[in-house]
Amino acid sequence: MDREKFYDEEIAKLRDSLFREKSSASAETFNNYFFSFIDRLLQDGQTLLDIGTGNGYVLSELLNRFPQYSLNLFGVDNSSVMVDQARKLLREKALIYLGDNSKLPYKEDSFDLVTAKNVTSICIPEIKRVLHEKGYFIFREYGPGKGLVEISALFPKERLIRSRNLDYYCSILKENGFKIEIAEQHKIKRNYTPEKLIEVVKSFPFIEGFSERDEKEILDKFNRSLEEITSDPLIIIARKKNDKI
Fold first, then answer.
1. What pLDDT score does 122 carry?
2. How far is the C-alpha of 102 from the C-alpha of 128, rounded, in Å?
């Protein structure tokens, strides 16, 4: 899937409206959990890169949650629409670049921390390249159910875009010279109206070739006023090893 083409103006507006809505208690709790790991590693004066930054949510939250730190913040995304949104949100508080995760527009040894939240495609060798020695990668993604386990079960696995488990990510990180310090898979429940469920499905790369027929299939099965859906977020904290040792 071409991510640049996927994130058009319509999808960007949809994602923005979803971000602005008050999160469920379970979603907010897990968000707090994710940022608590970043907080453990933050130090004044650090340089941090958020890859697949989208509308700049992670960088904005870092500024709001941790005003006690003076941080040099950078973000990169390969969607020009999302880059424009992030720049409007963050203005001069972070430098946002248009670029691809497989060829990050930064020099080697540039960052103390690299974060990635719900990023469909990451390139571990590039993350390693731009990290300082013993720098950290903080990764939050969804597992095989893509955050919508019961919806994922309706479709053949080959139609799920990059449906991957915790071991897959840990293996690639280890192969590329990272030490895994934390690796956790979670299961949490969230409630959606049928309409909101469809909005969420459409808001990120989830089902290859998603169609009106697919939408109808979901609504035929999940049509109660509130549907309980399982989310399967994972978190990995990995430290770059010193290759000279």
1. 92
2. 12
Q: Which amino acid is at 198?
A: I
**According to the model, what pLDDT value does residue 21 have?**
59
Q: Beta partners for 96?
A: 75
- pLDDT at residue 182 greater than cutoff 70: yes
d(C-alpha 56, C-alpha 98), whole Å:
12
- Whole-angstrom distance, CA of residue 136 vs CA of residue 240: 6
Q: What are the structure tokens assigned to 122, written together?
A: 């990451």
Helix H, strand E, coil C: the string for 67-95 is CCCCCEEEEEECCHHHHHHHHHHHHHHCE
User: CB-based contacts of 212: which residues, under 8 Å, 6+ apart?
Assistant: none
Handedness of CA 101, 78, 113, 170 (dihedral sign): negative
* Residue pair 36/61 in contact by the 8 Å Cβ criterion: no
User: Residue 108 is which amino acid?
Assistant: E
Angle of helix 25-41 relative to helix 57-65, nearest 10 degrees, comes to 70
Residues in contact with 12: Cβ distance below 8 Å, sequence separation at least 6, in sequence order? 55, 79, 81, 82, 85
Helices (H), 7-157: 9-20, 25-41, 57-65, 80-90, 124-130, 149-152
pLDDT digits (tens, 9 = 90+) for 46-95: 999 999 999 999 999 999 999 999 999 999 999 999 999 999 999 999 99
Of 8-12, 35-39, 91-95, 225-229, the one with minimum mean pLDDT is 8-12
Whether 110 and 127 have beta carbons less than 8 Å apart is answered as: no
